[in-house]
Design brief:
- By secondary structure, this protein is of the alpha+beta class.
- It has one domain (4-48): Alpha-Beta Plaits (2-Layer Sandwich).
- It has one helix at 16-25, and strands at 4-11, 29-35, 41-48.
- Strands 1-3-2 form a three-stranded antiparallel sheet, with helices on one face.
- The longest helix has 10 residues, at 16-25.
- The chain is flat and about 35 Å long.
- It comes from Leekyejoonella antrihumi.
- This is DUF4177 domain-containing protein.
């Protein structure tokens, strides 16, 4: 059974692609983007946990 680790990442509007590309290169998969405090965007990511 796969176990997961999760991360929440604040997104800067003018650098969203670069931020997500960097996390993707590190093996993270984007799950969802929601509005956080003060209408800032927050990305929720997951990747398989290394056992």
């Amino acid at each position: 059974m796969t176990t997961w680790e999760y991360a929440t990442v604040p997104l800067i509007v003018h650098a969203t692609k670069q931020i997500l590309d960097q996390w993707g290169e590190d093996g993270w998969e984007l799950v969802q983007v929601l509005s956080g405090p003060e209408n800032n965007l927050v990305a929720y990511l997951k990747r398989p946990k290394e056992n």
